[in-house]
Amino acid sequence: MADTAHPELRIDGERLLARIQALHEVSPIDGGGNCRLALTDDDLAGRDLVVTMMRDLGLTVSIDVVGNVVAVRAGHTHTAPVMCGSHIDTVRTGGRYDGNYGVLAGLEIIETLDTAGVITKRPLAVGFFTDEEGARFAPDMLGSLVYVGGLAVEEALDTVAIDGARLGDELSRIGYAGSTPCPGVVPHAFVELHVEQGPVLELEGVTIGAVESVQGISWTELTIVGQSNHAGTTPMRLRHDAGYAAASVAVFVRGLAGELGGNQVATVGACDLHPNLVNVVAGRAVLTVDLRNTSEDGLREAERRLFGFLDELAVTEGVTITKRTLARFEPVIFDPGVVDLVEQTALAQGHTVRRMPSGAGHDAQMLARVCPTAMVFVPSAKGLSHNPAEHTEPADLEAGANVLLHVMLALAAE
Amino acid sequence: MADTAHPELRIDGERLLARIQALHEVSPIDGGGNCRLALTDDDLAGRDLVVTMMRDLGLTVSIDVVGNVVAVRAGHTHTAPVMCGSHIDTVRTGGRYDGNYGVLAGLEIIETLDTAGVITKRPLAVGFFTDEEGARFAPDMLGSLVYVGGLAVEEALDTVAIDGARLGDELSRIGYAGSTPCPGVVPHAFVELHVEQGPVLELEGVTIGAVESVQGISWTELTIVGQSNHAGTTPMRLRHDAGYAAASVAVFVRGLAGELGGNQVATVGACDLHPNLVNVVAGRAVLTVDLRNTSEDGLREAERRLFGFLDELAVTEGVTITKRTLARFEPVIFDPGVVDLVEQTALAQGHTVRRMPSGAGHDAQMLARVCPTAMVFVPSAKGLSHNPAEHTEPADLEAGANVLLHVMLALAAE
């Protein structure tokens, strides 16, 4: 059978669900989720299971120097492979689909092609990247960042975990310090299938998201110092209230997101007051501001307005405000051709589809640095994410995998 | 010498300071303050020192069933005494003047009268009340509340401390479970001399505050429940952000105080977000609102507007808001005759004086239930209170004690 399109081809939904269930059972936690922090024994057990699945499918498995695992299925030609994949590490209270779904759907696609006897022109590759979540080692998306040459290997190996362990030591300990060098093979294209982790698809009744960008992120920690004082005896006009100033910031950023519109989101998710007592004007507040926008210009404008507001606030309330950047990533724009392909493939299969940005970070944004890349989203029930109750309907899981199958077939024919 | 006015009479400032220093040295903490939580061994040491001072002055000391201590100096008549006093317990990070000053100034006045050979018509009494701060046993002003019959003795004795101890057991343990019954003797009048605990007198360059009222207090704890969600993937329009709602409350009450004006103050001093992470929309917030006003009508209006705002906010943000009353006291208006007497006495001694409310609670507000009562305030440097750095200038301490002296002489002549 040739590497032409096989429009009738479909993955086996039951087999996909069985693979997801098997990986879930490696390290289940209460509520139906998983805890596989990167390079722990639980992660090792998950890795060993997935590598076994890869080898059982006859794939050529390579492990690189930071533990990224790539399994290749040969094509008719020795050209750059079309790659899919994601990650199998999780946060402490992870769901069973986040990351895992994209990896296991890739393996299901391989088995589907094997069963149908389809050999593609280009090789196909399925990978999983080390420490995508960043829940044990910062930064997140570490493995894919090293894979594309964005972080030196030695620096990555010297990364220290929240529990004090060195990444390189942990890789060796669990037997995943491989020999394949980084940066890794540059794929012909990369497509990541993932659950949305947000509520948009479900709310709009759409099955497939054709992800055209990843929002840029600006995280700033603010420390506001005012004057702690008696809440009864201190007249309002004499206050330097760090708690009020912090609240003003949270209210301001809500308004800012409304004014800027588009994809701008803004959140004050963390705030600590000191001394945090009912009858004491807070003398100090530490809070975080999370700004995201798919447009770098938009993100810069949001930062400009926020910082301008802080300058005014410091004067009017008589407080000092210190800023510390916790994270700053420019938005990533995916390849329009691959995004179009995702959209057209979904429509051809009779699915509802919408183009959309990703609000969360993904390995795909790193691969986008080196090759044409896009993502496929399927709905997350109630938008729940990083939660054991994370859920996607089996029909949606199957739909996403079938879209990925035909996107990869099309790319592999190029 | 008769019980007529002795306008030339002045207390001994050095002796007053020495008494304050002696009590400070009983349980000093870093920074110059004291930690004498009610009915602890440190409180016992303070009590024993002050009782010794009382006995050394030949006063008749009685200890009542909740540990309030009253020392009486006989007058020419067996009429109701003119009483002054305060408390000697402190918060964990207490200053050396809060409470102690009013008690020790009373003893200094007794010694001044002894030295001058002045016998008043009415007896004079100096008292200190158990657990005014409420830092170990709730509520605060417990001893004076029982003294005036506002709380049953058995209920007071069964009060459990933050460390689990029963008040009655602690009284017995330290030997201050007295036999004098409560409610106690109703004084002819009560005057409490106290540091301001706020910045008003210092800022206005005024030496004496003639305290005409104590602000009413309304403390409400709010629990706001929204939906915890990903700060990147959740569109603004779909958020139910408990953190934003909490911030809105803090900003609203600041505006409320401005609109209502007068003595209205409003504070959100405590706020806890959950899960309190940079990239997660808060699903739950617990915060406190402290409203105070010298007018009960004003305080009710502030509560009405706050609660109306909360109802609107719950709808617009799609959150639930649960209210819990932590404290609610009506304002206390002191006796205009005694307030006038304080003001006139201060003026006659050449001091600047202003009538003012007290923003903090004091034993005097309990005594005001049973007899004509007022307070005398002296400046607190920078308004610092419940802080080891609490400070009042010696000249101001002396001025306040001299005002108290002549106010008591005038009242004792009635």
Q: How would you characterize this protein structure?
A:
- 2 copies of one chain form a homodimer.
- With 414 residues, the first copy, chain A, is an alpha+beta fold.
- Chain A has 2 domains: 13-214 and 331-412, 3-Layer(aba) Sandwich (Aminopeptidase), CATH 3.40.630.10; 216-326, Alpha-Beta Plaits (2-Layer Sandwich), CATH 3.30.70.360.
- Chain A is 36% helix and 22% strand.
- Chain A is built from 12 helices and 18 strands.
- In chain A, strands 3, 4, 5, 6, 7, 8, 16, 17 and 18 form a 9-stranded mixed beta sheet that branches.
- In chain A, helix 1 packs across helix 3 (100-116) and helix 10 (336-348) crosses helix 12 (394-412).
- The longest helix of chain A has 22 residues, at 296-317.
- Chain A is elongated.
- Chain A starts with 12 loop residues before the first helix and ends with a helix.
- The mean pLDDT of chain A is 96.
- At the A-B interface, strand 9, strand 10, helix 8, strand 11 and strand 12 of A face strand 9, strand 10, helix 8, strand 11 and strand 12 of B.
Rounded average pLDDT of chain A: 96
Secondary structure category of chain A: alpha+beta
Number of domain units of chain A? 2
Please tally the helical runs of chain A, counting DSSP H or I stretches of 4 or more residues: 12
From the 3D structure, determine the CATH topology of the largest domain in chain A.
Aminopeptidase
CATH class of the largest domain in chain A: Alpha Beta
Task: List the chains of the largest interface with their residue counts.
Answer: A-B, 58 and 59 residues
The H/E string of chain A reads HEEHEEEHEHHHEHEEEHEEEEHEEHEHEH
Q: Main beta sheet of chain A: strand number and arrangement? A: 9 strands, mixed
Gyration radius of chain A, to the nearest Å? 23 Å
Instruction: Return residue spans of chain A where pLDDT drops below 50 for at least 5 consecutive residues.
Output: none
Which oligomerization state do the chains in this entry correspond to?
A: homodimer
DSSP strand count of chain A? 18
The helicity of chain A comes to 25-40%
Residue fraction in strands of chain A: 15-25%
Looking at CATH, the homologous superfamily of the largest domain in chain A is Zn peptidases
Please state the second-level CATH architecture of the largest domain in chain A: 3-Layer(aba) Sandwich
Which overall shape of chain A is indicated by the principal axes computed on the Cα atoms?
elongated
In whole angstroms, how far apart are the ends of chain A? 17 Å
